[in-house]
Amino acid sequence: MPLNRFIMLWALVLFSKVTTCMGQGLMIRNYNVKDGLANATVYAAVQDKDGFIWFATPTGVSKFDGKRFRNYTKKDGLTDNDVIKLAADSKGRVWFFTLNGKPSFYEKPLIHSEENDSSLIFNSRSHYMQYAFDGKGGYVWFLNTNNRIIMYTGKETAYIQGAFDLFHMMRNDSIYHPLQPSFHLDGLADMNNSTQKIFPVCPLPLDDSSLHARITNKALVIIRNTLYSYTAKDAICFFNGSEWGIHDDISHVCLDNDNLWVGTQRALYFLKDFFKGQRKVTRLLDNHYITSLLKDRDGNIWITTFGDGVYNIPYKNFYFSYLDNTNGLYSHSIFSISKDKKNNLLLIGQNAGILNTMDAENRIRQYTLDTTSGRNSLLTIQPRGDNNMLIGTDNGLYNFNTATQKATLLKAVRMLKDVDISPTGKIRIAAKNQVIALDDYFIGDLDMLVNSVACINDSAYYVGTNTGLYYCTDGKRQLIPTGTDILRKVNIKDLKWIDGSLWIGTSDQGIYVMRHDAIVKHFSSADNLASDICQQLYYDGIGRLYVATNRGLSVIDVKNESITRNITSNDGLSSDDIRGVYSDNDLLYIATSNGLCYFNADHIPVDTIPPVIYLNNIRYGDSTYMAINNFVHLYRRKASFEAEFGTIVFDLPELVEYQYNFSGDTTNGWVSTRSNIIPFPDLQPGTYKLMVRARKYKSDWSNTLSMDVSILPRWYQQWWSRGILLLAALLLVLVGLRYIIRRIKQAEKRKTEYNRRIAELEAKALTNQMNPHFIFNSLNSVQHLILEKEEKQALNFLADFATLMRQMLNNSRKSYISLEEEIAFLTRYLELEKIRFAHSFTYRFIMEDALKEYTIYIPPMIIQPIVENAIKHGLAPKNISGYLEIKLEMVDDLLYCSVDDDGIGWDKSNSIKSSRLIKHESTALSVIKERLQIIKSFNGSVGKLEIIDKFKSGFGNKEGTLVEILIPIVKML
Asked: Which sequence ranges form a coiled-coil region, renumbered to this chain (predicted)?
């Protein structure tokens, strides 16, 4: 909101007699360059069809909505910056008159001129427009300084041929409707209307309703300092400035209901109730050049001046009267107010010990009561019988006789705070740390500050202090704490005893109501009390309690114990800092720190009409766009969308509240704000509906203004583009995952192969561990044959042994050999062992037929050690021939191999073995087990080795050892 200057400007009311008296003040607000006005010199003002106020200045035009000025110059389309007049036609256009004579007008949202509108191309011939008229068919007519008529049809601007002048247009007002309130003429002589009568003196009384209607509806003519109502039949002078003390030429005039405003080059004159026959004139804006006057649709008065900007008088201020040091009072600060109804004398208490009185004719006189230095304000004024008023000041108690206009000191009291009078006239005084019963006794040296006193009857009263509430009687003369604990902890500022209830105003907790020593009601700002800081309580005697606070006045219905209304500076008070209140029937007087206000309390105007809301502009990113209701734009990354709205509110524009909704739901989702700029940062592509509404002080919500916002997506934000990008991303992820999985599989494969290879090498190494044992035993056998002189048999044995060794070496290089190769190897080995043991045993292979259908591969050298142990440790120790059976079967994809001998048995063999042999055997068996474990690590098949002593394991009386082994195999068809 522009910074508004509030000034109180007062003037003398001039009567037909020489007698003068002080008049009612008006609150006037000034707008100037610092507030955004284009220039301090303003020639004219008009209100357009939407409600905006336009001002013409030497440096362009200003459009005002009550809060902001929007200025237009040549760069915005004006034909010249020096705009001297304005006119608003019925189609909503605002016309601008410049000294170059070229026509231009504003029509939302542009200024039209010959540069952008061919219908305005016109040769002015150096004459400018003076007056404008609405015509039939939507035509606009102009009269220029050459007394020529120009017509604008909407398609062209052209001169009208013929002998036409201003009188012709005023006579034919049914054809030409003037777009200005008055015309300046040098005289009324109309050569083309010789029958017209001219009345220099009004033939009708000013309160005649027909005269008022005529003046309101017909053209007004200004001739120097007189005003005429002009018709084709006659011209009647209804105002002669000289008769009203106005001797300067009238520059402008404004009709305001029954009031008349007259502007001159030196001042503004307000003739209140002029058309009711009243002869009251107030001179305002002394030494101001008034260039134009305008009454807007709300009743506000706008005054443009030459060099002093624009003044505005809000409509509601006409319901208030103001007094301060500019129109009769000693100062602007007022502490108390009361009235002697018998003499109709108003008493106004101020600082510096000054008492002001104002009689029924508004004559103000001043009296000095308290002449002490320092604080000597008049804090309280109360009626005291006929013609007497009791006045308490900072330093004493006085009696003021309203008949003789004389004051008498009753008692000097330092730091007096409050005075109350009992029903029969006994006076109680609250002062600093004492309570005084006048002419009777006092209670002093209290350890508390006494702020207020309220009489219950002639002998009992309540006392309010900074430490709570107390009760006292004339009999005990002692302050006794009373009420609840709450009241013993608060700072009490004022008390009022009303019909059996004590109303207690506090310094920071609002108001308490006590009845029978119990709190029955509490009012605070949460309950709509104007403020919790109560400065004074005033009871009007007819059911209304007025609470003066630092934020306005609250009115409480005592009977219903409810707050009925609040009155603040927003309603027209000169200040919210209320010090005192007095009610005189319908007239309410309010003493404030900025003057006295008085008004009809039941007729305070309240503007409940919702404001007009409009879209000002749109900003998206770094660009600003014209106000349109359907905004479409391509998406900008991290760009903020802002919609700037405005309302046309000339009274209290700073209290306008907005609500916006971006969801399209008219019942929910409204967001309240005081800002007229609604931001949406980084608005994503989509279609939105923005709805905005506003309300001003005490009004309802306005109609909703809606606008559609479409943010179009970029190509990469389109659904198909996003689909492609998503698909590409998925493919990329799949390729990446496939690559990672492939690498993992390859690594696992390499690791598995590496482990398998290690296992194979370990198996081969274990296989190779078997070879030395076999070779050692075989060489022992050859040695035995040689020692026994069996050379031939030894040679044969060596030949077979060599063949067996080659076969063993070939098999040891392989991870697997076929079962046939293993049987062939075992057969050759057994034959050699039979030779070595002199054919002391026989053997047999038993192979399941199913094994013959497949090629079975088994690890090499895994059965041979078992067979060798069976021969050497089972069969060899027997004294008779032994038998060895090797059985091969398929069991769940494993080769079952059993080596069964009828030797001496496992346990017996172990008992006769030497420690060396036991160690050797344990090593052989552990090697087989370890080989089976290694085969499991890279093959997954689980092998098994089990040694059974048949005699001990339930095979009857059979002796021998049964070794069972499950061997992992590879099976092929």
From this structure: 737-764
Instruction: Give residue 525's pLDDT.
Output: 95
Topology classification of domain 612-713? Immunoglobulin-like (2.60.40)
Any idea where the domains of the chain sit in the sequence?
A: 29-180, 181-319, 332-525+532-538, 539-604, 612-713, 719-757, 814-972
Residues 230 and 218 sit within 8 Å (Cβ to Cβ):
yes
How many whole angstroms separate alpha carbon 665 and alpha carbon 613?
Answer: 19
How many other CB atoms are there within 10 angstroms of residue 399's CB atom? 15
C-alpha–C-alpha distance, residues 256 and 268, integer Å: 14
Hey, do 29-180 and 612-713 end up sharing a CATH topology, with the first three levels equal? no
Query: What's the pTM?
Result: 0.70
Q: Which of 141, 166, 169, 161 is nearest to 153 (CA)?
A: 141
∠ CA 327-328-334, rounded to 5°: 100
Would you say 319 and 329 are in contact if contact means Cβ atoms under 8 Å apart? no
Q: How far apart are the first and last CA of the chain?
A: 100
Matching residue, tokens 């492939």: 742
Flag the least confident range among 173-182, 759-768, 873-882: 759-768
CA angle 919, 904, 965 (to 5 degrees): 65
E-strand spans in 342-433? 345-350, 354-358, 364-368, 378-383, 388-393, 396-401, 406-412, 416-421, 427-431
Q: What is the second-level CATH architecture of the domain 29-180? A: 7 Propeller (2.130)
Question: Residue 525, SS3?
Answer: helix
Mean pLDDT of all residues in the chain? 87
Mean pLDDT of 278-300: 93
Question: Would the pLDDT of 860 be above 50?
Answer: yes
Answer whether residue 926 shows pLDDT above 80: no
Closest CA to 427 of 854, 227, 418, 305: 418
DSSP, res 487: G
CB 629 within 8 A of CB 707: yes
Angle of the 819-836 helix axis to the 791-812 helix axis, nearest 10: 150
Choose the CATH number for 814-972 among 3.30.565.10, 3.30.40.10, 3.40.50.970, 2.60.40.10: 3.30.565.10
Cβ–Cβ under 8 Å, residues 907 and 918? no
Angle between helices 819-836 and 719-787 (to 10 degrees): 20
Longest dimension (CA), the chain: 184
How far lies 749's CA from each of 733, 740, 758, 942, in Å?
23, 14, 14, 22
Q: Is the pLDDT reported for residue 894 higher than 90?
A: no
| Cα–Cα distance, 822 to 751 (Å, whole number) | 31
Calculate Rg over the CA atoms of the chain.
Answer: 59
Q: 3-class DSSP state for residue 225?
A: coil
Report the C-alpha gap between 533 and 505 in whole angstroms.
Answer: 8
Coil/strand/helix, residue 630 = strand
pLDDT for 412 equals 94
User: In whole angstroms, what is the distance from residue 597 CA to residue 592 CA?
Assistant: 8
The pLDDT of residue 769 is above 90: no
Q: Could you tell me which CATH class the domain 539-604 is placed in?
A: mainly beta
Residue 917: C-alpha distances to residues 830, 832, 861, 876, 923 (Å): 21, 21, 20, 14, 10
3-class DSSP state for residue 757? Answer: helix
The residue that leads in pLDDT, 18 or 291, is 291
The gap from C-alpha 798 to its chain's centroid, in whole angstroms, comes to: 108
**pLDDT at residue 777 greater than cutoff 70:** no
Element (H, E) at 296: none
- Backbone phi and psi for residue 716, each to the nearest 5 degrees, phi listed first: -80, -5
